[in-house]
Design a protein that fits this description.
Two copies of one chain form a homodimer. In chain A, about 40% of the residues lie in helices and about 15% in strands. The first copy, chain A, is an alpha/beta fold. Chain A folds into two domains: about 240 residues, nicotinate phosphoribosyltransferase; about 170 residues, TIM Barrel, CATH 3.20.20.70. In chain A, a hairpin with a 2-residue loop joins strand 12 and strand 13. At the A-B interface, helix 1, helix 6, helix 7, helix 8 and helix 9 of A face helix 1, helix 6, helix 7, helix 8 and helix 9 of B.
Chain lengths: ~450, ~450
């Protein structure tokens, strides 16, 4: 699959029309999130790599052209699509940086047919990666450096592709590992896993199961203690830990019930037995609010598995992202539909101290004390550097997170900083504010 | 990729332990949704094909074994995994059928290591396909046969895999087409597409854009009329329709604002011009509640594009699905964790008239007037029939939809039928209700 059909039909229709009329002027499209969901005070830019990979490979193979012929595209259009490659320029916010509403995550400048064809795929990838990274970042903020986080979402993400994405993006924002083995292999992450209730149930007694697991698996072992009764489960784990000398490399996992109370009880039982180094791991439909509650209650929890509600970004499963034409040829462009007004021109985000951002024009000089967020990442259809590595992205995220004002970090009713418009952008808005004269 | 690492680490750990101990008894796992989300009165079973495909291909290739060796798995385990294939039996509810909470979508019976390894992938695929199919079905119900539906979700689904799934599943529940070209090619769906605001903006005037589009694209043409001002947009479309004689093959699309009022105004303008056959298409962040409002207000809307909120099942982006051990060897199994109690034994769902379901044991005779929902779909690791075709699935859905009681169809606070337990299952529950004696 060469990727050309990974698009909405209207992109192909519009591209066909542009190609047929020889409309080859360079168009600039800006991809940004119009408004943040109510429970998001910031976004973590992500998804750039697969977007650029697709642009580099964009073409129409014989099977795809054949399909388009059967659906009514004419020979001239097919011929033009056969030769089409992405030859444009892309500016983007590097992965891991924190951004806000109205700030472009990415801008494409290319002959209009090419730029238009890219809309669907670019929106898909940047939206869903940014959605998942931003949710994972909230979990990381809630854990407050006191609870280690492991990504457990694979079983209920919206597909395998999403499972890979969330494993990688969770690591980007500071999770220590993932349960997803193939994702760990691909992205060089730490795998983490315990046992399921079914394992305990497959043995005559819970103690038999714990003993077998500790015998069979090398390395640290985590005993799932809530299959039958949590207090009894902890007692059984204590017995096996003592019997096998696992005091330095064991944990108990609690997956149901009142986690604060059960963790305290388990900690007491472990401490009473002198097992101060045995860790407590919790799981079971947790999200950032549950993590905040554990932290606020000073629950003796060492680590947590965060699955479903992270894996689909349950409280905000999408972002209001758009890909808007902002310039065509020499002409800045605006759209005036009610509630959907766009700002004209190729842009830049100038970041000041404390995340005071100025949304300006790409060509204008940075206001004093600011630096630009968008960087050129592709020219003439070729990437300007190798794909982003996770460590670099992680550092960007950590550095931005340190700068984020507290109201943006709040889990409930966060307040995101709002970018100001630069004088130059304001003047351009005024100059292009009116719709074209009626014909 | 041979698929073996598409799993959570703990599945591999447990499988390794079972293999090492020669625990090869057949385990039965039951995959079901514990509770429906508040806004779901029914689920549409989906995702069986990719699940069975994966089971048929399940193996560990050299690269995967090498990775596992590096992460600490020993030689004996690697050798056992190298030879491992899925040799079990699968029963499942055929795609398109309507199911409810607690009813197995699928049951796997296989040597316990094989059955355990399948947990993550099977949960992932059945959960996300069923989530999306069920959301699409609500849109279909809301449209009440009065508004044609087109799937527009690609740009904001959680990945490309999810975009393919939602295009196909929307078609399964009665959508007439999709904007996703590659999905249309793969699944033989009708593509549908209009134009974007950017197209209108790329021309000096809206009328120029409409004229160009109608010239360049053969077949029915849809004019997007809200780029600048909707009323003026309709007037411009009228002009071009008249000029080019498109009265029988044109539509106008309204993508923002008060759709009921704007559609009425557009209909009046079109009718006044004698253009009774020009259709009205609406879009813009719509979901089933918006569709119901259009229908309730008798808005003159012929078709609608349903995108983002369908594409991620925004109000219920996951299901509370589980994969539970219900039998091992000769022994029925239960789990007693608070709020997570499971029912023992391999099951069958017996459907009576009006969707009165009885949840029973697989081996028991169907109660009079009922038929079983779960069918054998795989034996000895081989599928029993070719992959499900969309038309057959669509017929199953239509037939079940006709039977669904009205409270389950409600968009707000739906009431799903609850399956009764058969006497035989009840007896087995009583017999297995106590946890095993403490060691």
């Amino acid at each position: 699959m060469s990727g050309g059909l990974l698009t909405d039909l209207y992109e192909l229709n519009m591209a066909a029309s542009y190609l047929r009329r020889g409309m080859t002027d360079v168009a600039t499209f800006s991809l940004f999130v119009r408004d943040l969901p109510p429970e998001r005070g910031f976004l973590v830019a992500a998804g750039l790599d697969p977007a650029l990979d697709w642009l580099e490979r964009l073409s129409f193979g014989p099977d795809e052209l054949d399909y388009l012929a059967r659906t009514g595209f004419d020979a001239a259009t097919l011929h033009a699509l056969e030769r089409l490659r992405f030859t444009g320029e892309v500016w983007a916010v590097p992965e891991g940086r924190i951004v806000f509403a109205s700030e472009p995550l990415l801008e494409v400048s290319a002959p209009i047919a090419e730029a238009q064809l890219a809309e669907t795929f670019l929106l898909n990838q940047l939206t869903f990666h940014t959605t998942l990274a931003s949710k994972a970042a909230r979990c990381r903020v809630a854990a407050a450096g006191r609870i280690e986080l492991v990504e457990f979402g694979f079983r209920r993400t919206q597909g395998v592709e999403a499972a890979f994405a969330v494993a990688r993006l969770a690591a980007l924002v500071g999770f220590v590992g993932t349960s997803n083995v193939e994702a760990a292999r691909r992205f060089d992450l730490r795998t983490s896993g315990t046992m399921a209730h079914s394992y305990v149930e497959a043995f005559p007694t819970e103690t038999d199961a714990f003993r077998a697991y500790a015998h069979d698996l090398p390395g640290p072992v985590t005993f799932l203690v809530d299959t039958y009764d949590t207090q009894e489960g902890v007692a059984n784990a204590l017995e096996v830990i003592g019997e096998l000398g696992l005091a330095r490399a064991a944990a108990v996992r609690i997956d149901s019930g009142d986690l604060v109370a059960l963790a305290r009880q388990a900690r007491r039982m472990l401490d009473d037995a002198g097992l101060h180094r045995v860790r407590i791991f919790v799981s079971g439909g947790l999200d950032e609010h549950d993590l905040a509650r554990l932290v606020a209650n000073d629950a003796p929890v060492d680590a947590a598995g965060i699955g479903t509600r992270l894996g689909v970004s349950a409280d905000a499963p999408y972002l209001d992202s758009v890909y808007k034409l902002v310039a065509y040829g020499d002409r800045p462009v605006v759209k005036l539909s009610p509630g959907k007004r766009t700002l004209p021109g190729a842009k830049q985000v100038f970041r000041g101290p404390g995340m005071r951002d100025v949304l300006g024009l790409r060509g204008e000089p940075p206001p004093p004390g600011t630096h630009p967020l968008l960087e050129p990442v592709m020219r003439a259809g070729k990437r300007l550097s190798a794909s982003s590595d996770l460590d670099t992205a992680r550092k960007r995220f950590e550095s931005d997170l340190d700068e984020l004002p507290p109201p943006a970090l709040a889990l409930r009713d966060p307040q995101a900083p709002e970018a100001e418009l630069s004088d130059a952008l304001r003047r351009l808005v005024d100059a292009t504010g009116a719709p074209p004269a009626p014909p």
